[in-house]
Amino acid sequence: MTTTTVLMIIIALNALATINLWREAVRRPARPSEKFIKALLRSEPVVPKHGTPTKWTYEDDTYVAKYERTPVGAMFRARRLFFYDFADFAVIMNTWFEKHEDCWRLQELADNELRTDEPPPKYGRRYSIFYNQTDLGLLEMQDGLDKHGDNYSEEHPVVRAEIQLHSVRLFELMAIKSLLQDIATHISDLGDGAEQAEVRDTIDRAIQQVLWTTQQVSQYPPELSETDWGDLECRLRGTARWYFKRREQLRAL
Asked: How far apart are CA 180 and CA 238, in angstroms?
């Protein structure tokens, strides 16, 4: 065996060893701080301090009146109706979490300019998503169009929601799935089989994407040594009949 051959073998073995080390770095994320773990897993659920939305709250009818007989006026009316309809959404979701002894909570934000929708600016309702004392992400909601392309209305209260979470790998699968399903339940029609199937598929794809992203071996070496705690994005669309049913039940108490 020549010297050149030996050197080539050594280089190849070193390359394989380096790749394995990079992969081990992906499998072994850095240990989170004790403070973070305590706030996340060993504390009590946060007591939400809801903000009051400040932008385009539709209290002034000027725009609706100005464009009354135009498609723009119909859009403004739909957004105003959605905005008022979902004034109690965080409260109703939090009572659901409490009832089922979940540690999730929603806290409405005063800044209601949507960040996760294109193109800006658009306004809706925005919520921080807490697990115990830790802010783990964002929920943004706005009115949507029904299957016929009609605006949000009392007859067809179609909404769109986008959920963004970080550090999801620190949870058991059912904890994440429970949050997504609970939100989806409140903004979908439980009697519509097709809508329910679409919601389930959307949630499953979002979770699968996290799994693939965190396990995929990148072609760029610096990325292989970085910790990926798992970022999840999930876009839901549905007819919010269950939300209105629970709202009426709670108002009747």
From this structure: 13
Q: Where are the alpha helices (H) located in 42-139, listed in sequence order?
A: 62-66, 71-85, 89-99
For the chain, the C-alpha Rg in angstroms (whole number) is 23
Which amino acid belongs to residue 216? Q
Tokens 């339940």, residue located? 185
**Residue 233 domain-assigned?**
yes
Domain membership of residue 93 as a residue range: 49-252
Q: Would residue 221 count as lying in a domain?
A: yes
Contact of 184 with 207, CB cutoff 8 Å: no
Determine, yes or no, domain membership for 66. yes
pTM: 0.79
Structurally, the chain folds into a number of domains equal to 1
Question: In whole angstroms, what is the distance from residue 134 CA to residue 51 CA?
Answer: 17
In this structure, is residue 217 part of a structural domain? yes
167-216 per-position pLDDT tens digit: 888 888 999 999 999 999 999 988 888 899 999 999 999 999 888 877 66
Residue whose entry in the numeric block shows the structure tokens 């029609």? 189
Dist CA 5 CA 135 (whole Å): 56
